[in-house]
Design brief:
Order of helices and strands: EHEHHEHEHHEEH
Radius of gyration: 16 Å
Low-confidence stretches: 180-185
CATH class: Alpha Beta
CATH topology: Rossmann fold
Number of helices: 7
Strand content: 15-25%
Structural class: alpha/beta
Oligomer: single chain
Largest sheet: 6 strands, parallel
CATH architecture: 3-Layer(aba) Sandwich
């Protein structure tokens, strides 16, 4: 399960990746980066999701953590919450996460304009992600500006996905400490 202890750990929480367009494109953009380990929580047995010893080792060796998920009802799918309750609650009290960046990478069905004070969803994505930011701050992590891909339920979805995949790869490379031009692939 440790995937050779990489610099960036991505906790992917998507209950239906085979039918995903956006999260699959984001995953495809980073899956072959040498210093990245992606853990798809929905493909893991419960005993691995809640294996404290393994996660302590994985997160202790990482330089950064990413939560990647589709925005479901203004939050993440349930297995990420299960991981947070079972693993992050403990790790937050240890040096394993202190000082490490935490990035949320998420996709929304609605367009950007829906996520504003006067918009259809009434709140910005930043406001809706405050619990993740609060958890990061409480644990001594460095909260990163969320990476949000808007409009998966709109006619612009395909264009938004194509642009986002490249930008996501650049964000992940920055967390590793490399820019895209230094990468050998």
């Amino acid at each position: 399960m440790d995937k050779d202890l990489k610099k960036v750990v991505v906790l992917l929480a998507h209950p239906n990746m085979e039918n995903s367009q956006a999260n699959k494109a984001l995953f495809d953009a980073i899956k072959d980066i040498e210093d990245v380990a992606v853990f798809n929580l929905y493909e893991m047995p419960d005993e691995d999701i809640l294996n404290m010893d393994a996660w302590s080792r994985i997160i202790s060796h990482a330089n950064a953590v990413i939560y990647q998920f589709p925005f479901y009802w203004m939050s993440a799918p349930s297995l990420l919450k299960k991981w947070q309750d079972g693993i992050f609650t403990y790790l937050a009290k240890t040096p394993a996460v202190a000082g490490k960046p935490l990035l949320v990478a998420t996709t929304t069905g609605s367009e950007f304009d829906a996520y504003r004070s006067g918009g259809r969803n009434r709140f910005t994505v930043d406001e809706l992600l405050r619990p993740y930011q609060g958890g990061a701050v409480h644990a001594g992590m460095v909260w990163q500006t969320p990476f949000v891909v808007y409009g998966m339920g709109t006619p612009d979805a395909e264009k938004n996905i194509a642009l986002a995949a490249d930008l996501y790869k650049k964000r992940v490379m920055a967390l590793i400490g490399k820019d895209k031009s230094e990468d050998s692939w």
